[in-house]
Protein backbone atom coordinates (compact mmCIF):
# COMPACT_ATOMS: atom_id res chain seq x y z
CA UNK A 1 0.00 0.00 0.00
CA UNK A 2 2.74 2.43 0.92
CA UNK A 3 4.53 2.02 -2.42
CA UNK A 4 1.26 2.50 -4.29
CA UNK A 5 0.54 5.68 -2.34
CA UNK A 6 3.98 7.16 -3.06
CA UNK A 7 3.69 6.33 -6.74
CA UNK A 8 0.25 7.95 -6.91
CA UNK A 9 1.49 11.15 -5.23
CA UNK A 10 4.49 11.34 -7.58
CA UNK A 11 2.28 11.03 -10.65
CA UNK A 12 -0.18 13.57 -9.30
CA UNK A 13 2.59 16.06 -8.53
CA UNK A 14 4.11 15.64 -11.98
CA UNK A 15 0.70 16.22 -13.55
CA UNK A 16 0.17 19.38 -11.49
CA UNK A 17 3.53 20.77 -12.51
CA UNK A 18 2.90 19.92 -16.15
CA UNK A 19 -0.46 21.70 -15.98
CA UNK A 20 1.39 24.96 -15.19
CA UNK A 21 3.30 24.91 -18.47
CA UNK A 22 2.24 27.49 -21.06
CA UNK A 23 2.13 26.89 -24.79
CA UNK A 24 3.34 29.97 -26.70
CA UNK A 25 2.22 30.64 -30.24
CA UNK A 26 3.25 33.36 -32.66
CA UNK A 27 1.01 33.90 -35.66
CA UNK A 28 -0.87 30.69 -34.85
CA UNK A 29 2.27 28.55 -34.86
CA UNK A 30 3.50 26.93 -31.67
CA UNK A 31 6.90 28.11 -30.50
CA UNK A 32 7.10 25.85 -27.47
CA UNK A 33 5.56 24.79 -24.16
CA UNK A 34 7.44 25.69 -21.03
CA UNK A 35 6.89 26.67 -17.45
CA UNK A 36 8.12 30.22 -18.08
CA UNK A 37 8.02 32.82 -20.84
CA UNK A 38 10.98 35.18 -21.19
CA UNK A 39 10.54 38.61 -22.82
CA UNK A 40 13.96 39.63 -24.13
CA UNK A 41 14.38 43.33 -25.14
CA UNK A 42 15.54 43.68 -28.73
CA UNK A 43 16.88 46.45 -30.92
CA UNK A 44 14.30 49.18 -30.72
CA UNK A 45 11.89 47.47 -28.31
CA UNK A 46 11.55 47.37 -24.53
CA UNK A 47 9.20 45.18 -22.45
CA UNK A 48 7.72 46.38 -19.19
CA UNK A 49 5.93 43.64 -17.18
CA UNK A 50 3.84 43.94 -14.01
CA UNK A 51 2.64 41.12 -11.75
CA UNK A 52 -1.11 41.22 -11.03
CA UNK A 53 -1.86 38.57 -8.35
CA UNK A 54 -5.49 39.53 -7.93
CA UNK A 55 -6.11 38.92 -11.62
CA UNK A 56 -3.86 35.85 -11.60
CA UNK A 57 -1.78 37.19 -14.45
CA UNK A 58 1.34 39.09 -15.51
CA UNK A 59 0.75 42.01 -17.88
CA UNK A 60 3.52 43.04 -20.29
CA UNK A 61 3.65 46.16 -22.45
CA UNK A 62 6.11 46.78 -25.30
CA UNK A 63 7.47 50.25 -25.96
CA UNK A 64 9.87 51.73 -28.50
CA UNK A 65 13.45 52.46 -27.53
CA UNK A 66 14.11 56.14 -28.36
CA UNK A 67 17.78 55.28 -28.81
CA UNK A 68 16.74 53.44 -31.98
CA UNK A 69 13.52 55.14 -33.05
CA UNK A 70 13.03 58.90 -33.34
CA UNK A 71 9.89 60.01 -31.53
CA UNK A 72 7.82 63.03 -32.45
CA UNK A 73 9.03 64.83 -29.33
CA UNK A 74 12.72 64.14 -29.96
CA UNK A 75 12.40 65.13 -33.63
CA UNK A 76 11.12 68.57 -32.60
CA UNK A 77 13.66 68.88 -29.79
CA UNK A 78 16.25 70.75 -31.88
CA UNK A 79 17.80 67.48 -33.04
CA UNK A 80 19.08 69.06 -36.29
CA UNK A 81 19.95 72.49 -34.86
CA UNK A 82 23.45 73.69 -35.75
CA UNK A 83 24.48 76.93 -34.00
CA UNK A 84 27.92 78.03 -35.15
CA UNK A 85 30.23 79.74 -32.66
CA UNK A 86 33.39 79.77 -34.78
CA UNK A 87 33.34 83.57 -35.33
CA UNK A 88 34.40 82.96 -38.93
CA UNK A 89 32.83 81.79 -42.22
CA UNK A 90 34.40 78.42 -41.43
CA UNK A 91 31.38 77.46 -39.37
CA UNK A 92 31.49 74.76 -36.70
CA UNK A 93 28.86 73.25 -34.42
CA UNK A 94 27.74 70.16 -32.55
CA UNK A 95 24.27 68.67 -32.99
CA UNK A 96 22.19 68.10 -29.85
CA UNK A 97 21.26 64.55 -30.95
CA UNK A 98 24.81 63.32 -30.36
CA UNK A 99 28.10 63.05 -32.19
CA UNK A 100 28.16 61.89 -35.82
CA UNK A 101 30.71 59.33 -36.99
CA UNK A 102 30.48 60.56 -40.60
CA UNK A 103 28.44 62.90 -42.83
CA UNK A 104 25.54 60.78 -44.16
CA UNK A 105 24.38 61.63 -47.66
CA UNK A 106 20.95 63.21 -47.51
CA UNK A 107 21.28 64.64 -44.00
CA UNK A 108 19.39 67.88 -43.43
CA UNK A 109 20.14 70.43 -40.73
CA UNK A 110 19.30 73.98 -39.70
CA UNK A 111 22.38 76.21 -39.58
CA UNK A 112 22.52 79.56 -37.78
CA UNK A 113 25.83 81.22 -38.76
CA UNK A 114 27.46 83.62 -36.31
CA UNK A 115 29.13 85.72 -39.04
CA UNK A 116 28.11 86.61 -42.58
CA UNK A 117 29.60 84.55 -45.39
CA UNK A 118 30.81 87.08 -47.97
CA UNK A 119 32.29 84.61 -50.43
CA UNK A 120 33.50 81.09 -49.52
CA UNK A 121 32.30 79.31 -46.39
CA UNK A 122 32.32 75.79 -44.92
CA UNK A 123 30.82 73.77 -42.10
CA UNK A 124 32.48 71.35 -39.67
CA UNK A 125 30.21 69.22 -37.45
CA UNK A 126 31.62 67.42 -34.42
CA UNK A 127 35.14 67.92 -35.76
CA UNK A 128 34.60 65.54 -38.69
CA UNK A 129 36.24 68.04 -41.01
CA UNK A 130 34.98 71.05 -42.99
CA UNK A 131 32.74 70.69 -46.03
CA UNK A 132 32.08 73.61 -48.39
CA UNK A 133 28.66 75.28 -48.36
CA UNK A 134 27.37 75.88 -51.89
CA UNK A 135 24.23 77.26 -53.43
CA UNK A 136 21.35 75.02 -54.54
CA UNK A 137 23.21 73.95 -57.71
CA UNK A 138 26.06 72.50 -55.61
CA UNK A 139 28.65 74.52 -57.57
CA UNK A 140 28.37 78.26 -56.90
CA UNK A 141 29.84 79.62 -53.65
CA UNK A 142 27.38 80.85 -51.03
CA UNK A 143 28.83 84.36 -51.50
CA UNK A 144 26.71 86.66 -49.30
CA UNK A 145 23.73 84.30 -49.17
CA UNK A 146 24.39 83.47 -45.50
CA UNK A 147 23.70 86.33 -43.09
CA UNK A 148 24.77 86.27 -39.45
CA UNK A 149 22.02 85.26 -37.06
CA UNK A 150 19.61 84.01 -39.74
CA UNK A 151 18.55 80.32 -40.01
CA UNK A 152 19.26 78.33 -43.19
CA UNK A 153 18.39 74.76 -44.18
CA UNK A 154 21.33 72.77 -45.55
CA UNK A 155 21.37 69.46 -47.43
CA UNK A 156 24.48 67.27 -47.68
CA UNK A 157 24.78 65.71 -51.16
CA UNK A 158 27.70 63.46 -50.26
CA UNK A 159 30.30 66.06 -51.19
CA UNK A 160 29.15 69.54 -50.11
CA UNK A 161 26.39 71.18 -48.12
CA UNK A 162 23.79 72.82 -50.37
CA UNK A 163 21.61 75.77 -49.39
CA UNK A 164 17.96 74.77 -49.60
CA UNK A 165 16.32 78.14 -48.88
CA UNK A 166 16.87 81.76 -49.76
CA UNK A 167 19.07 81.17 -52.83
CA UNK A 168 18.95 79.78 -56.30
CA UNK A 169 21.62 78.03 -58.36
CA UNK A 170 24.73 79.92 -59.31
CA UNK A 171 24.61 82.72 -61.80
CA UNK A 172 27.59 84.43 -63.33
CA UNK A 173 28.05 86.68 -60.32
CA UNK A 174 26.27 85.25 -57.25
CA UNK A 175 28.03 87.62 -54.84
CA UNK A 176 26.69 90.65 -56.70
CA UNK A 177 23.22 89.15 -56.86
CA UNK A 178 23.20 88.56 -53.11
CA UNK A 179 23.41 92.29 -52.43
CA UNK A 180 20.01 92.57 -54.11
CA UNK A 181 18.35 89.73 -52.21
CA UNK A 182 15.59 92.05 -51.03
CA UNK A 183 14.87 93.42 -54.53
CA UNK A 184 12.38 91.99 -56.97
CA UNK A 185 13.96 90.91 -60.26
CA UNK A 186 11.66 89.94 -63.12
CA UNK A 187 11.38 90.14 -66.88
CA UNK A 188 7.99 91.82 -66.69
CA UNK A 189 5.81 93.36 -64.00
CA UNK A 190 2.17 94.29 -64.72
CA UNK A 191 0.33 96.55 -62.29
CA UNK A 192 -3.37 96.26 -61.58
CA UNK A 193 -5.56 99.13 -62.79
CA UNK A 194 -8.57 100.67 -61.08
CA UNK A 195 -11.22 102.41 -63.19
CA UNK A 196 -12.65 105.29 -61.16
CA UNK A 197 -16.21 106.51 -61.76
CA UNK A 198 -16.17 110.17 -62.74
CA UNK A 199 -18.06 112.41 -60.30
CA UNK A 200 -17.65 115.83 -58.67
CA UNK A 201 -15.76 114.02 -55.86
CA UNK A 202 -13.78 110.95 -56.98
CA UNK A 203 -12.57 108.41 -54.41
CA UNK A 204 -9.23 106.77 -55.29
CA UNK A 205 -8.76 103.45 -53.51
CA UNK A 206 -4.98 103.07 -53.21
CA UNK A 207 -5.18 99.31 -52.48
CA UNK A 208 -7.10 98.59 -55.71
CA UNK A 209 -3.96 98.80 -57.86
CA UNK A 210 -1.08 101.02 -58.88
CA UNK A 211 -2.81 102.61 -61.89
CA UNK A 212 -6.04 104.58 -61.56
CA UNK A 213 -7.98 105.86 -64.56
CA UNK A 214 -11.02 108.08 -65.05
CA UNK A 215 -12.78 109.57 -68.08
CA UNK A 216 -14.42 112.96 -67.63
CA UNK A 217 -18.10 113.59 -68.33
CA UNK A 218 -19.38 116.85 -69.72
CA UNK A 219 -22.53 116.49 -67.64
CA UNK A 220 -20.51 116.41 -64.43
CA UNK A 221 -18.00 119.16 -65.15
CA UNK A 222 -14.90 119.67 -63.04
CA UNK A 223 -13.95 117.20 -60.31
CA UNK A 224 -11.71 116.56 -57.30
CA UNK A 225 -9.76 113.33 -56.71
CA UNK A 226 -9.30 112.19 -53.08
CA UNK A 227 -7.02 109.29 -52.05
CA UNK A 228 -8.56 106.95 -49.48
CA UNK A 229 -5.29 106.70 -47.49
CA UNK A 230 -1.75 108.08 -47.56
CA UNK A 231 -0.41 104.73 -48.83
CA UNK A 232 2.71 102.88 -47.75
CA UNK A 233 6.13 104.48 -47.58
CA UNK A 234 7.84 104.02 -50.95
CA UNK A 235 4.65 103.07 -52.78
CA UNK A 236 4.15 104.50 -56.29
CA UNK A 237 0.97 105.05 -58.25
CA UNK A 238 -0.11 106.59 -61.54
CA UNK A 239 -3.32 108.48 -62.39
CA UNK A 240 -4.65 108.66 -65.96
CA UNK A 241 -7.24 111.33 -66.75
CA UNK A 242 -8.92 111.20 -70.16
CA UNK A 243 -10.79 114.43 -71.04
CA UNK A 244 -14.06 114.08 -72.95
CA UNK A 245 -14.40 115.45 -76.47
CA UNK A 246 -16.74 118.31 -75.61
CA UNK A 247 -14.88 120.71 -73.30
CA UNK A 248 -11.80 120.99 -71.09
CA UNK A 249 -12.24 119.87 -67.47
CA UNK A 250 -10.16 120.91 -64.48
CA UNK A 251 -9.17 118.24 -61.97
CA UNK A 252 -8.03 119.23 -58.50
CA UNK A 253 -6.37 116.94 -55.93
CA UNK A 254 -7.73 116.72 -52.41
CA UNK A 255 -7.37 114.35 -49.45
CA UNK A 256 -3.95 112.69 -48.97
CA UNK A 257 -2.66 114.08 -52.29
CA UNK A 258 -0.08 116.85 -52.61
CA UNK A 259 0.17 117.90 -56.25
CA UNK A 260 1.85 120.57 -58.35
CA UNK A 261 -1.57 122.18 -58.79
CA UNK A 262 -4.85 121.57 -60.65
CA UNK A 263 -4.77 119.59 -63.88
CA UNK A 264 -6.29 121.67 -66.64
CA UNK A 265 -7.33 119.34 -69.41
CA UNK A 266 -7.94 119.77 -73.11
CA UNK A 267 -10.94 118.41 -75.01
CA UNK A 268 -10.17 114.98 -76.41
CA UNK A 269 -6.73 114.84 -74.71
CA UNK A 270 -5.37 112.72 -71.85
CA UNK A 271 -2.86 113.30 -69.07
CA UNK A 272 -0.82 111.10 -66.71
CA UNK A 273 0.44 111.87 -63.21
CA UNK A 274 2.83 109.91 -61.00
CA UNK A 275 2.78 110.01 -57.19
CA UNK A 276 4.99 108.50 -54.46
CA UNK A 277 4.03 108.00 -50.82
CA UNK A 278 6.01 108.71 -47.67
CA UNK A 279 3.53 106.68 -45.63
CA UNK A 280 1.21 109.59 -44.82
CA UNK A 281 0.87 111.64 -48.02
CA UNK A 282 1.11 111.11 -51.78
CA UNK A 283 3.52 113.50 -53.51
CA UNK A 284 3.39 114.25 -57.22
CA UNK A 285 6.68 113.52 -58.95
CA UNK A 286 5.75 113.88 -62.62
CA UNK A 287 2.91 114.71 -65.01
CA UNK A 288 2.46 114.65 -68.77
CA UNK A 289 -0.41 116.55 -70.40
CA UNK A 290 -2.02 116.76 -73.86
CA UNK A 291 -1.45 113.13 -74.79
Textual characterization of the structure:
The chain has 291 residues and is mostly beta strands. It has 3 domains: 41-77, no CATH class; 78-179, OB fold (Dihydrolipoamide Acetyltransferase, E2P) (Beta Barrel); 193-288, Jelly Rolls (Sandwich), CATH 2.60.120. It contains 3 helices and 21 strands. The chain has a 7-stranded mixed beta sheet, with no helix packed on it. The radius of gyration is 39 Å and the shape is elongated. Residues 1-18 and 167-179 have low confidence and may be disordered.
Summed up, what is this model?
This protein is mainly beta. 9% of the residues lie in helices and 35% in strands.
- The Rg value, from CA coordinates, equals 39 Å
Q: Could you say how many structural domains there are in total?
A: 3
Model regions low in confidence, pLDDT < 50 over at least 5 residues: 1-18, 167-179
**Strand order of the biggest β-sheet:** 5-7-10-11-9-8-6
Q: How would you sum up the global shape?
A: elongated
Q: Spell the H/E element sequence.
A: HEEEEHEEEEEEEHEEEEEEEEEE
CATH hierarchy: architecture of the largest domain: Beta Barrel
CATH domain fold name of the largest domain: OB fold (Dihydrolipoamide Acetyltransferase, E2P)
Q: What is the share of helical residues? A: under 10%
The secondary-structure class comes to mainly beta
CATH class of the largest domain: Mainly Beta
Task: Give the end-to-end Cα distance, rounded to a whole number of Å.
Answer: 136 Å
Q: What's the count of strands?
A: 21
Per-chain topology:
Elements: H1 2-19, E1 22-26, E2 29-34, E3 45-52, E4 57-64, H2 72-75, E5 81-83, E6 90-93, E7 108-112, E8 122-125, E9 131-134, E10 152-156, E11 161-163, H3 174-178, E12 193-195, E13 201-204, E14 211-215, E15 223-227, E16 236-242, E17 250-253, E18 257-258, E19 263-264, E20 270-277, E21 282-288
Parallel strand pairs: 5-7, 6-8, 9-11, 12-14, 13-15, 14-16, 15-17, 18-21
Antiparallel strand pairs: 1-2, 3-4, 7-10, 8-9, 10-11, 16-20, 17-19, 20-21
Amino acid sequence: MRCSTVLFLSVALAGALSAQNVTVQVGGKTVGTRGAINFQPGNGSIQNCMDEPTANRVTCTSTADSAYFVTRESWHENQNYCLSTSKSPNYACELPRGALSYYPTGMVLLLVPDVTCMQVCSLDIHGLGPKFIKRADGTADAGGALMAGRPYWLFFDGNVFRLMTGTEGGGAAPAAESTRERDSIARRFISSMETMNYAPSISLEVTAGDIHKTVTSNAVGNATINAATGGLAGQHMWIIVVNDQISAKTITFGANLRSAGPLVGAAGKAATLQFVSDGTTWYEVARTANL
